[in-house]
Amino acid sequence: MIYEPSSQKKLFSKSLYYNKNDEILYYRISDDNTLTTTYFDPNDKIIEDFFAFSISDLNLFETYGSIKSTLLAQAREKYSID
User: Fold this and answer.
1) What pLDDT, on a 0 to 100 scale, did the predictor assign at position 30?
2) Which residue range is the domain that position 53 belongs to?
3) 24 neighbors 16 (Cβ within 8 angstroms)
4) What is the pLDDT of residue 51?
5) Contact yes or no for 31/12 (Cβ under 8 A)
6) Above 90 in pLDDT, residue 45?
7) Which residues contact 38 (CB under 8 A, 6 or more apart)?
8) What whole-number distance in Å separates Cα of residue 25 and Cα of residue 54?
9) What is the CA radius of gyration of the chain?
10) pLDDT digits (tens, 9 = 90+) for 53-82
11) Percentage helix, strand, coil, to 5, in the chain?
12) What one-character DSSP code corresponds to residue 59?
């Protein structure tokens, strides 16, 4: 996830969510003026039912466990003595 915070010039924050292949899954805009959050798909279309959308794509998300496994495998490969 990449987070772009709001500022005095930009009164909204943006969070971009990627899968393990660095492809964008969706992003969200949080408006500081209206205190609303809108979710968008990779094609910039509003996601009307975000809960249904996110449940259908759960297998695409990296988890703590998958990140840990990847890092451990990389470390083992790099420091293994043959």
Assistant:
1) 93
2) 2-79
3) yes
4) 74
5) yes
6) yes
7) 28, 29, 31, 46
8) 9
9) 17
10) 665 565 556 667 777 888 888 888 888 865
11) 30, 30, 40
12) G
- Rounded Cα distance between 56 and 78, Å, is 35
Q: How many Å from the N-terminal Cα to the C-terminal Cα in the chain?
A: 36
Predicted structure pTM score: 0.60
Q: Determine contact, residues 21/59, Cβ cutoff 8 Å.
A: no
Cβ–Cβ < 8 Å for 60, 25: yes
Bridge partners, 26 (sequence order): 17
CA distance 46 to 55: 16
Amino acid at 38: T
| Domains: count for the chain | 1
14-43 burial, b for 16+ CB within 10 Å, e for fewer?
A: ebebbeeeeeebbbbbbeeeeeeeebbeee
Which amino acid is located at 19 in the chain?
N
In one letter, which amino acid is 56?
A: S
